[in-house]
Specification:
By secondary structure, the chain is mainly alpha-helical. It has 19 helices and no strands.
Length: about 475
């Protein structure tokens, strides 16, 4: 099924490019050929797993979407949202060439990651034996309770953040009357950070508590988890909502509650598109007005659908802009990645909070940079090129492939609570790492993993037996 889908998408994209005289040229066909030749390099390592619900599967799916689907549409229709500092032929041709190098490097890195994972099975068995021994100790139960307490604390803090935001009259005005999504006024951003953490910590808390009733209907369980994930929609964060759903599906599969199938995705896709289009069309009005703006006919409007993708997750054209910009602008040489951790510090700390490639794209697209503008994000491929040219794309993609495959091989089937939650959080953040600049994904990734890291730290404390 997966092989047939990839072959079909690559061949269709190639035919569309050829039939419409795409300006991308021969390098577009080079990318499609690389895709067809590379995807089988590492696929054996994923046998017995729900492939698309894995880190390597998500990376592959993103490449297919951004280069096969979105890249083809932008090239053929010539409807880029980004003004290019060079001819479209040159920009898109080089972008496909960089994409081919990135995917080939990812495939080789993934192959090495799976090989390393198989080689270390003995080490994994030893680690599992150690974990089993620790669990057998009398204090293991207390440690599990402390881990639950950590997630309970962060969940409670997220709930309090919602209350604080909704008690603020300016925030209520914006949420209900001025803007779809909960965006706090200046000075209240730290409460919003806790709010972003709430869905994943609440899901983690659910997973840490073993169900007392084993006969709870699957529909009831899934409905409750879906409502938790939908909290991100309250901020207008569609991508974070979808990522939370990936985490939920993985944890439900590990627990044996529900396994996501292709038919489920096919059935849910129209609803997901409708919600996304509705939020795109109503993002400048409040929820009260947006409630009357649902139009199911929007699904049949190709221009609106393309515009929604263009403003949300399409990165082919911004990647092209970053690549051709290097002819007149200097490389960053790692600065964007090194400066990204400063984004978690408060503005009052006095550190320079550079936004790197986001600022470059904002100036290019809008003539001025402003955090409120949309669609100024850069893909990981584009940011790697803007830092170290082809060498950065090659090295970064190798690391991404190796890391994704290594974690898939070690953690995909694990039922150990902290391992399953950690892998679920990786799924939660994976797409953001691929589709946004490091200055954007680093703070949210840091916040997402803070409760998990605290729970791990609590487990490692050498509690005395008398406690």
């Amino acid at each position: 099924m997966r092989i047939a889908l990839i072959v079909t998408l690559a061949l269709v994209a190639g035919v569309v490019h050829f039939a419409n005289g795409s300006p991308a040229g021969a390098n577009a066909y080079l990318f499609f050929a690389t895709l067809l030749l590379s995807f089988g390099i590492y696929s054996r390592g994923m046998r017995g797993q729900n492939y698309w619900l894995s880190l390597t599967g998500l990376v592959e799916a993103w490449f297919i979407f951004d280069y096969c689907a979105y890249g083809t549409a932008v090239s053929v229709l010539q409807q880029s949202k980004t003004p290019l500092p060079a001819s479209m032929d040159e920009a898109y041709s080089r972008t496909y060439l960089v994409g081919a190098l990135a995917f080939l490097a990812f495939a080789c890195g993934a192959y090495a990651g799976f090989a390393r994972s198989r080689f270390s099975r003995g080490a994994r068995s030893a680690v599992r034996a150690l974990i089993a021994a620790l669990r057998a100790r009398r204090l293991a139960f207390r440690r599990e309770r402390l881990q639950r307490a950590v997630f309970l604390l962060f969940t409670a803090a997220g709930v309090v953040s919602i209350v604080v935001l909704l008690l603020d009259p300016d925030s209520r005005q914006q949420l209900f009357f001025e803007h779809v999504g909960l965006s706090p006024r200046e000075g209240m951003g730290r409460y919003a950070s806790l709010y972003f953490m709430l869905p994943t910590t609440a899901v983690g808390l659910w997973y840490l508590y073993k169900p007392k009733r084993r006969h709870t209907p699957v529909v009831v369980t899934m409905a409750g988890l879906f409502l938790i994930a939908a909290l991100h929609l309250g901020c207008g964060r569609r991508l974070m909502w979808a990522s939370t759903m990936l985490m939920i599906f993985h944890l439900c599969k590990v627990r044996g509650i529900f396994t996501l199938r292709a038919r489920h995705l096919a059935a849910a896709l129209p609803l997901v598109l409708l919600v996304s289009l509705w939020m795109e069309a109503t993002k400048n009005i409040g929820w009260y007005a947006a409630a009357d703006a649902i139009d199911i006919r929007a699904l049949a409007d190709g221009d609106k659908l393309f515009g929604m993708v263009d403003n949300s997750v399409g990165r082919f054209d911004t990647t092209a802009a970053l690549i051709v910009n290097r002819e007149t602008l200097p490389y960053y040489y790692g600065e964007t990645f090194l400066m990204a951790p400063l984004q978690v510090l408060p503005v009052s700390a006095g550190f320079e909070r550079s936004v790197g490639v986001r600022e470059e794209l904002g100036e290019l697209i809008y003539g001025a940079f402003n955090r409120g503008f949309v669609s100024q994000e850069a893909s990981l491929v584009g940011e790697l090129y803007a830092n170290f040219s082809y060498a950065g794309v090659l090295g970064g993609s190798l690391l991404v492939g190796f890391g994704a495959a290594f974690l898939d091989g070690h953690c995909h089937h694990s039922r150990q609570p902290m391992v399953a939650l950690g892998y679920g959080l990786c799924l939660f953040r994976a797409i953001h790492h691929l589709a946004t600049a490091s200055t954007s994904w680093f703070p949210l990734t840091f916040l997402a993993f803070v409760p998990w890291l605290c729970a791990i730290a609590v487990t490692q404390i050498p509690w005395r037996s008398r406690l």
